Amino acid sequence: MTRPRTRIQQRNSETILEAALEVFSQQGFRGATLDQIAEVAGLSKPNLLYYFASKEAIHAALLSGLLVTWLNPLRAMDPDGDPVAELLGYVRRKLELSRDFPRESRLFANEMLQGAPRIRAALEGELRDLVQEKAAVLRRWMDEGRLAPVHPVHLIFSVWALTQHYADFDVQVRAVLGKAEADPFPEAGQFLEVLFRRLLEP
Amino acid sequence: MTRPRTRIQQRNSETILEAALEVFSQQGFRGATLDQIAEVAGLSKPNLLYYFASKEAIHAALLSGLLVTWLNPLRAMDPDGDPVAELLGYVRRKLELSRDFPRESRLFANEMLQGAPRIRAALEGELRDLVQEKAAVLRRWMDEGRLAPVHPVHLIFSVWALTQHYADFDVQVRAVLGKAEADPFPEAGQFLEVLFRRLLEP
DNA sequence: GGATGGTTTGACCAATCGGTCAGTTTCAGA
DNA sequence: TCTGAAACTGACCGATTGGTCAAACCATCC
To answer: CA-CA distance, B189 to B91, in Å (whole number)?
Structure first.
């Protein structure tokens, strides 16, 4: 449940979570099966259940760390920094998360599509509080005339939507852009910088 | 398969598809079960399979009409109209789709998260062609100085991301905004209009 | 070389899965 | 009112599901 003790426990727990992330992020909770996870992990199904009490427990372990990681870039937005630079930095870090951890993004998206049955509480508590706190900072910046006035919460939504789109809809992005092997993220980064710069510069 | 003939066939086919949309959009293909769909539809499982050959067939029937509906707003963008007005109109119509057909949006999102195994071909064909066609129009508008120069395809991505976010992440949006009963769409519409106006006006 | 405790597994379980089928009920048209 | 087709159902099928368990394995320390 908490920290694995032996090296084997450490290694196998990680292997299982890695495999579970692969499967859950693609199939959702109900669509994923322990057999799939076991196969990806290269372990037997009973062995999975030796390390985690249930399918639910594996999923919970994945989700528990997720929200924190996901919100770190927002937390890092400095109220004493330069408004536009801070927000562009946030966008950049969030886009890097989409690029480097697309499966985590899809796991989160899956949970949202299902109506967030397992993290509803965190959304209405932790997440809401942080967003409201940062929205107040944004509102202050706007009042000071250092940021164009827009609805601060929807502004944060727009950062989420625009960055996560490149992870969650990766197939579509690549299909439309055509060049299957090319990396769409550099272009996306440039586009988003222009977008937010034009939106936010007073 | 094609058009139902009798009134009963018409009604029950619609009932089944309506129920299937409810379940598939929330659970994804693998996560959904025929029993769930049958219960929501108020029909017996064998009766479902009297109208549709298989679970796969129900899902396919839902998806087949989806892409067309989903792309209609983009199709409606008039190459001879006013650039900014046309794009804002597109955004408005797309946001209305998110508001009025959130389950369709989630069904599509689920398919994307799974890697689009059933509509990959349409993405690389029909969808790609339409986007490239409209991107050419956007590029022309930019060359004529009637639209600020940005990457046209990523511009279209941004419309998708920002509008679909309000359907796909509806739970999160409402959790963060707090007021559970309030409708976030009017505010969203205003925000998106400001965003795209500032981004696109030359 | 044993003893010990952490690790792994084949065999198995009840429940649920998508789907079939023989047979019954309902309905529309003559 | 009769009849044939359409609509519907309970019972059932083999496969798969999440999960259990006793037994075996294995590394380590004495």
So the answer is: 8
Among B4, B19, B18, B7, which residue's Cα sits nearest to residue B51? B4
| Contact by Cβ (8 Å): A49, B51 | no
Decide if A157 contacts B175 (C-beta within 8 A).
no
Q: Is the CB of B9 under 7 A from strand C?
A: no
Per-residue pLDDT tens digits for B100-151: 999 999 999 999 999 999 999 999 999 999 999 999 999 999 999 999 999 9
Distance from the Cα of residue B79 to its chain's centroid = 22
Q: Which positions ≥6 away from A189 have C-beta within 8 Å? A: A92, A95
In A52-123, alpha helices (H): 55-75, 83-100, 102-113, 120-122
B75 close to A (CB below 8 A): no
Cβ contact A165–B168 (<8 Å): no
- For A28: left if phi > 0, alpha if psi spans -120 to 50, otherwise beta; the answer is left
Whether B176 and A123 have beta carbons less than 8 Å apart is answered as: yes
**Tokens describing residue A182:** 């090319």
Q: How many residues does chain A have?
A: 202
> In this predicted structure, what is the pLDDT of residue A10?
87
Domain residue spans of chain A = 1-53, 63-200
Cα distance from B61 to chain A (closest Cα, Å)? 20
What pLDDT is stored for residue B179 in this prediction?
A: 80
Domain A63-200: CATH class, spelled out: mainly alpha
Q: Would you state the structure tokens that stand for residue A133, as one six-digit string?
A: 């706190």
Task: Convert the pLDDT of each residue in B154-202 to its tens digit.
Answer: 999 999 999 999 999 999 999 999 886 789 999 999 999 999 999 999 8
Which among A124, A95, A96, A66 has a CA at the least distance from the CA of A195?
A95
Q: Give the H or E element holding residue A141.
A: helix A128-143
Evaluate whether B36 touches B23 at the Cβ level (below 8 Å). Answer: yes
Mark the nucleotides of strand D covered by protein, meaning any atom under 7 Å from a CB.
Answer: 6-11, 16-22
pLDDT tens sequence across A133-164: 999 999 999 999 999 999 999 999 999 999 99
- The answer to whether the CB of A27 falls within 8 A of the CB of A36 is yes
- pLDDT tens sequence across B23-51: 999 999 999 999 999 999 999 999 999 99
The CATH architecture assigned to B1-53 reads Orthogonal Bundle (1.10)
